[in-house]
Description:
By secondary structure, this protein is an alpha+beta fold. Helices cover about 15% and strands about 35% of the residues. It is globular.
Amino acid sequence: MYITIYIKKDIVNIMKNYTVKARQRSGTNSIDLTLPASIRKEYSINHGDIFKIIPNMENGTLTLTYKLIYQNKEDK
């Protein structure tokens, strides 16, 4: 468990505290992480885009970093 304390932070950065939900696909062991629509729109993330996932476990906290490696330009 961790507590984040904000001191003299920009209110816009505080309000951009996004969450995602892991959803299981029927018939598989895979799960999907659903991005908020506002992130998809702001960063032009499209259906068919491909990301490299870099997992990092440090001090009991799992961080998943997604790196865009292919952007589907046809879905815009």
